[in-house]
Amino acid sequence: MTTTTQYRHLHVRQAGAVARVTLARAEVRNAFSDEVIAELTEAFGALGAQDSVRAIVLAAEGPAFCAGADLNWMRRMADYSRAENVEDAGRLAAMLRTINECPKPTIARIQGDVYAGGVGLVAACDVAVAVDTAAFCLSEVRLGLIPATIGPYVARAMGERAARRYFITGERFGALEALRIGLVHEVVDFELLDEKLDAVLQAIAAAGPQAVAAGKALVRDIAGRPIDDALIASTVESIADIRAGAEGREGVQAFLEKRKPAWLPRQD
Q: Is the distance from CB of 9 to CB of 22 less than 8 angstroms?
């Protein structure tokens, strides 16, 4: 079954268990505006709440994935007061957090260049697959700005050492460098982009849906924390909850009985 949801700047399509959110502003290199930010927040919030969705792909039309801020939006921001800037940046922060904390796995399909705020979109997704010709740039400092709102997600994705360089130089770097520093997970020829994407989606589909959501939450909970009594106790409670739950029991029983678990389609 295929369903579509109409937005002005996005194409949202669900086919089976996979939803695809596609940035549809190729004429401006899929740059952000306040409207795009609102639509992304709404789309990921709605899809994350749907039981029928197992994974969400974030894609884009045209030669660029996302060029950062839209020029018209930037012109309006130039006249904002500090209070208006706080409110405006808060909406971008809310959108990134919605993607980052979406209970469904999110995969960025990067078919072209990624600049400024677009790097934040990539970093907020769980998995990022890029074409080998894609270029990346945290260009904010060239305008006398900083990548503050996207910073927490980007720094966690690429690591503090790489962030120190690229936050302050605004250098353009290629897909292989993005792979080396951890901003993306896979770099492939354009002809293989969807094949690699499908492989990631198939891996997700083979996993327990509740376990996937819990696994995402686990990473957010344990990353960067000291391995102390509190963290150990938390992980003990987490695995006990999963083992005692219906999905965990079904998964273990299916393994022992050498059959497919209930969340996988059966072949009669």
A: no
